[in-house]
Write a structure and sequence with these properties.
Organism: Dyella koreensis
CATH class of the largest domain: Alpha Beta
Radius of gyration: 27 Å
Shape: elongated
Enzyme class: hydrolase
Keywords: Hydrolase
Protein name: Aminoacyl-tRNA hydrolase
Largest sheet: 3 strands, antiparallel
EC number: 3.1.1.29
Length: about 140
């Protein structure tokens, strides 16, 4: 069981772990041990996630999310398989906790009269600068 919050607990059956050989330091030992972990979690079909959280997770533009709605996390930070397993699970929990937060709705506002006037004054100023350049070129 992986506890994300009081209301969300992921059973082990929903997590798929695959162990692979990690690159990086480790000498000859690194060629024989499968210390890297690939953790897969099916966001789209998970019964443990509330619908709102599932929608927010699927709406994220995350390269770790496949087209089928499976979140793939690779952990190869450590030389030890157990630490990489723990790291992958911690990262999964962080991602789901981030999706628990409901984003604030953006309130559309109109630009103030003074900001409109400043914008137009700036445009007029730029126009005058460009006009003065064109006149200097034509006199030569």
């Amino acid at each position: 069981m992986l506890t994300v919050s009081r209301s969300i607990v992921l059973p082990e059956t929903e997590l798929t772990e695959r162990f692979l050989r990690a690159d990086g330091p480790g000498g000859q030992h690194v060629n024989r041990t499968e210390s890297a972990v690939e953790l897969r979690f099916d966001v789209a079909h998970s019964p443990s996630l509330p619908d709102a959280v599932r929608e927010r997770l699927l709406a994220r533009r995350d390269r770790r999310l496949t087209d089928d709605g499976v979140l793939v996390i690779q952990a190869r930070r450590f030389r030890d398989q157990s630490r990489n397993r723990e790291d992958a699970r911690d990262r999964l929990v962080e991602i789901i906790r981030a999706a628990l937060v409901v984003p604030k709705a953006r309130v559309a506002t109109k630009p103030s009269r003074a900001s409109k006037e400043r914008r137009l004054a700036g445009k007029q100023q730029r126009g005058k600068i460009k006009q003065s350049r064109s006149r200097s070129w034509s006199s030569e």
